[in-house]
Design brief:
- This protein is of the alpha+beta class and about 190 residues long.
- The protein has one domain.
- The protein has 6 helices and 4 strands, in the order ααβαβαββαα.
- Helix 3 links the parallel strand 1 and strand 2.
- The longest helix has 23 residues.
Length: about 190
């Protein structure tokens, strides 16, 4: 890896950490995120994959590494994909395959994968609907979550189903101008696709 690649990875991680702190934690879009970030339990991994096969290799490696580390040290991983997967529908196809691979790799019931993307769009919404921004990250990202951590979080927050509605309200109150003022959008312009 060259020095330039190290610099690029550092920028990608910086952009993602800033988004997590300002948007996800700052707007309380995920009430569980603050404690793991404050404790340094979030691992920021960068995949240089531009194709599906390479990404699956990197995903399997990150899942293996996450399982091997004590949750007190690394509770969750954000696998950031700055070099490809710009098309949201193709990214969703990738997520479906990644979920299928969890079982094949023996991680079913151990991990879950959540998706975040600069072009995230909920079904039934227009692309520019502000509510889509609850899941818009600076780069395409796979969030690798431990099932045990999710179970603990849900017990600590008994009304977890209300998070979605609260987030929609928060984003409508914030508006696009408020989102832009957060300064959490990277200049993700990849033209690569699956």
């Amino acid at each position: 890896m060259t020095w330039a690649a190290d610099d690029a990875d550092a920028l990608v991680k910086h952009d993602t950490r800033k988004w997590l702190q300002r948007a996800v934690i700052g707007l309380n879009l995920c009430p569980f995120a603050k404690s793991v970030e404050v404790k340094g339990q979030v691992h920021y991994g960068v995949s240089h994959a531009v194709g599906f096969r390479d990404l699956l290799h990197d995903l399997k490696t990150e899942l293996h590494d996450l399982q091997a580390v004590d949750p007190a040290q690394r509770d969750t991983t954000l696998l950031i994909l700055p070099n490809g997967f710009a098309d949201f529908l193709e990214f969703n196809a990738l997520l479906r395959e990644a979920d299928r691979m969890l079982g094949k790799w023996g991680y079913d019931g151990v991990f879950q994968i959540a998706s975040l993307h600069p072009g995230y769009q909920f079904a039934g919404t227009e692309a520019d609907d502000i509510t889509n921004y609850t899941n818009r990250s600076p780069y395409p990202t796979l969030h690798l979550l431990r099932e045990a951590s999710i179970d603990r979080a849900v017990k600590a927050f008994p009304h977890a189903e209300a998070i979605y509605e609260t987030n929609m309200h928060t984003m409508r109150q914030l508006g696009l101008q408020g989102w832009e003022k957060l300064g959490v959008c990277a200049n993700f312009k990849s033209t690569n696709s699956l």
